[in-house]
Write a structure and sequence with these properties.
The protein is an alpha/beta fold. It has helices at about 40-45, 95, 140-145, 150-160, 175-185, 200-210, 220-230, 245-255, 275-280, 295-305, 320-330, and strands at about 1-10, 10-15, 25-35, 55, 60-70, 80-85, 85, 105-110, 125-130, 135, 170, 190-195, 215, 235-240, 255-265, 285, 315-320, 340. Helix 4 packs across helix 5 (about 175-185). The termini are close together. The structure holds zinc ion (ZN).
């Protein structure tokens, strides 16, 4: 089969590789669409250490089952499917506690951090364990289904936040995940949604996604302005979708005493943390990791058109041209949202 292989750092090659051999509990999926994630772009040059070559990236995918293992039940050839990006063990303590996204020895598709290597979906075929499969509703396209992972990550953070009707919410960082947090907040009933980013173009998209107010992170008196908008108390909940000291500190500075901040951004291993502010204001700082079963809800929302993902797809490209588009994303030379590769 053909695949886009990360042969060494900064070198993606479209080439022939052996087709995956399925285990008895797995299905073989013909990949119909696979999105390029920001983490794939960051993985390209080795800066994250999570894409050790040679390997095949890609974890935001959809396709058609073409073969089933002998122990597979309830799935057959021809089924249109998407799948969780996390392959989690079923007999793990955390999985049994309902926390499969935190299970020990879980593996992410298309990731190779040194402790394991699992080839991803920038390929014609991928082997997938049956317990992470989700059926794609008839009305939902393969491209839309390849967007489900990103929306599910955003929805998980909303679920972690426990947002209530009437809450005032702030989203710091309006990349793909931040935009989907805004879209999901819009239908979760807060009374005010504020978006903050350092890129004015992203803030224009934030307005389309549902933000009532937008601020540049570089703006003078940013914190005072947000607090003035929220009865001079601060927001009830903030979401941080960048993962850097500056943006995490903004997310903490603009919430009210006793408020919550949900941290989704994850690109820095450590940051400057305002300990005394968090302790003396009794703030709740909540981590949100990946996805815990939000796939089905997102697929239902796509089917019933409660959420739109099409406006976040910049281009649909043949897998053979993937390397060129990875470079474009890496160099940030154009304003690109999601690029979907089709084998
Ligand atoms: Zn991703």
């Amino acid at each position: 089969m053909k695949a886009l292989v990360l042969e060494k750092y900064n070198e993606l090659v479209y080439k022939d590789v052996p087709e995956p051999v399925i285990k008895s509990n797995e299905v073989l999926v013909r990949v119909m669409a696979c999105g390029i994630c920001g983490s794939d772009v960051h993985g390209l040059d080795g800066s994250t250490g999570r894409r050790i070559p040679p390997m095949i990236m890609g974890h935001e995918a959809s396709g058609i089952i073409v073969k089933t293992g002998t122990d597979v039940r309830g799935w057959k050839s021809g089924d249109r499917v998407t799948f969780d990006s996390t392959v989690y063990p079923l007999n793990d303590w955390f999985t049994l506690e309902g926390l499969y996204n935190l299970s020990d020895n879980r593996e992410i598709l298309g990731v190779s951090p040194g402790t394991y290597k699992r080839d991803g979906a920038f390929a014609e075929f991928i082997a997938i364990p049956q317990h992470i499969l989700y059926k794609i509703p008839e009305k939902v396209t393969f491209q839309q289904a390849a967007m489900v992972e990103a929306v599910a990550v955003a929805l998980h953070s909303i679920n972690i936040s426990g947002v209530k009707t009437g809450d005032r919410c702030v989203v710091v960082g309006t990349g793909m995940i931040g935009i989907f947090i805004l879209k999901l907040l819009k239908i979760s009933g807060p009374s005010m949604i504020i978006a903050i980013d350092n890129n004015p173009k992203r803030l224009e998209i934030a307005i389309l996604a549902g933000a009532d107010h937008i601020f540049l992170s570089t703006e003078g008196n940013l914190v005072e302005k947000v607090i003035a908008l929220t009865n001079n108390r601060g927001a009830d909940i903030s979401f941080e979708a960048v993962g850097k000291s500056e943006s995490v500190n903004i997310a903490i500075d603009i919430i009210r005493k006793g408020g919550k901040t949900v941290l989704v951004g994850n690109i820095s291993p450590t940051i400057n943390f305002p300990l005394q502010k968090v302790v003396t204001r009794e703030l709740k700082v909540l981590g949100s990791c990946a996805i815990r079963g939000e796939y089905e809800t997102v697929l239902n929302m796509l089917e019933t058109e409660k959420i739109c993902v099409d406006d976040q797809i910049s281009a649909i490209i043949p897998l053979s041209e993937g390397a060129v588009w990875f470079k474009k994303l890496f160099r940030k030379e154009e304003d690109l949202n999601k690029i979907i590769l089709v084998p």
